[in-house]
Amino acid sequence: MKTDALLIFTRNPELGKVKTRLAKTIGDEKALIVYNDLLLHTRNETSALECDKFVFYDTMITDNDIWSEAIYQKKLQAGGDLGKRMQHAFETLFEMGYQNCIIIGSDLFDLKAAIIENAFKKIGDHDVVIGPAEDGGYYLLGLKASNTLIFQNKEWGTSTVFEATVRDLESYKICLLDRLNDIDTFDDLKRSSYDWAKLNRDRSVK
């Protein structure tokens, strides 16, 4: 067991249940294609990282998917809102003995392995590492101890999450990473590095 652990929160890729805001513009089938591409990107950027890696599924653990059991350990997210689910995931890994834990989602084509590696380096002399997202949330959170406060009383999924979290961390030494664009809407997709025009070229998309 290593001292560093990466937590990857994912949604099970089901038609009509992922990227619903994006689907309002491009439809459920294309939104599912985008989300599967996001999952692949996240796997490709994390698979070689020098840390233990955990995938937390939202509804059910899936065998024989893109997340190889040789590289990723698989767990199920707890119930409750996003804050409760993240808090439970952090507590689970700290109880397992990990010293530095970083959580990411699977919503960013702009997220690279080097960003995560840098976050693990920064947490060495900081209490918290946080990567703000352009929509007012955050795409990465690194802790080296459980912190229940930052997971409570947040309006998850809104533009207030990052600022509210930073307010809760006023007494902590924080490292802020670069602001990145996560994919929730079609405008987000167009601003990203994704070849979104491929959706119109893909014959499997009707």
Please tell me about this protein's structure.
The protein is an alpha/beta fold and 206 residues long. The protein has one domain (4-197): Spore Coat Polysaccharide Biosynthesis Protein SpsA, Chain A. It is built from 7 helices and 7 strands, in the order βααββαβαββαβαα. The chain has helices at 20-26, 28-46, 82-96, 113-122, 161-168, 186-191, 198-201, and strands spanning 4-9, 52-57, 72-76, 100-104, 128-132, 138-143, 174-176. The chain has a 7-stranded mixed β-sheet with strand order 3-2-1-4-6-5-7, sandwiched between helices. β5 (128-132) and β6 form a beta hairpin. It is globular and about 50 Å long.
Tally of individual helices = 7
Average pLDDT value? 93
Task: Kindly report the name of the CATH homologous superfamily.
Answer: Spore Coat Polysaccharide Biosynthesis Protein SpsA, Chain A
| Gyration radius over CA | 17 Å
Pfam families: DUF2064
GO molecular function, one term: transferase activity
Protein name: Glycosyltransferase
Keywords: Transferase
What is the gist of this entry?
This protein has 206 residues and is α/β, with parallel strands linked by helices.
Question: Which terms summarize this structure?
Answer:
206 residues; globular; Trfase_1_rSAM/seldom-assoc; Spore Coat Polysaccharide Biosynthesis Protein SpsA, Chain A; seven-stranded mixed beta sheet; alpha/beta; transferase activity; transferase; single chain; 7 strands
